[in-house]
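Q: Sequence in, structure out?
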Amino acid sequence: MSAPSGSDLGAVRGEDAFDVAAVDRWLREAAPELDLEGLPDVQQFSKGASNLTYLLRYPAHDLILRRPPAGAKIASAHDMGREYRVQQALQPSFPSVPRMVGLCTDEAVIGGDFYVMHRVQGTILRSRIPDDLGLDAAQLRALCESFIDNLVTLHGIDTTQPEVAALGKGQGYVGRQVAGWSKRYRAAKTWNVPGFEPVMRWLDEHQPADTDVCVIHNDYRLDNVVLAPDDPSRIVGVLDWEMATLGDPLMDLGGALAYWVEAGDGPAMKWLRRQPTDAPGMLTRDEVVAYYAQASGRSVADWRFYEVFGLFRLAVIIQQIYRRYHLGQTTNPAFKQYWLAVQYLHLRCRRVMRG
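A: Exactly. Output:
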């Protein structure tokens, strides 16, 4: 992982601390070619609400450590071994995947699995575009197009390669996702959020057949890509592969657009904004769908289903995080009001369902 500046980085939160000396000893054995000097200076990235991400700064190397949060029970969302192997498998075909250093499955080191990778140097856009980038409306449109083109490239990877073919189950993805995310929501529900039963029933009744089987990222957002230091319209890294698999590419696009806030959205949607997609020059959601269809040659005739599913899946992700706060498994104050976001996403799902 990388960061646009020091603004994303801070001291390690007490509940997220780990034994730095133990990690350093493991690293020296796992990657002797790095020739590490001294103990690393460790900082924690404040962004991200699922797996935890840290910068390990050595004199000659900036490394990234990824691990699950304490108390995490959602194995598929916190499987460090799988996240590591996905990136290893994709690196030859998709060079924007970060280079891996090593995977640790010895719980004696820090109490759970983790992996380390090289930091991708560049800029990550957060809620606002840094003034020093100097991007005008035309350049922001070009960035949007590059962002979509990069997703089309990912969806075009040859899935017959053995290492890639092993990443997912293939056909039947849409049905598995509707059933799986419905089950996750019911398991994560707390008293202060909607039941989502009409939404889950609508998704079950309106699901289309899979359009294709591709490598999908499943968390593809502007704040998960790294922009080249010398050209912010060029993508040099794609991060956070924890949910990547083989599946329907339109499900990937629907998931990406659930986060896509545009200029005409109301205050509730803008409260969810984590990327500057409402800036002048950025494409609207409809324009993103149209551009993807043209660039990929795929039909988007059933788009309403993918839009509702993307919003529902985002609600489940947020609710799973909120439930950890609700149960006292994390004290991060950023999660305190997440239940309100779940309420809002329920309204958006119902609105799109009504057409």
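The chain has two domains: 6-118, 131-353.
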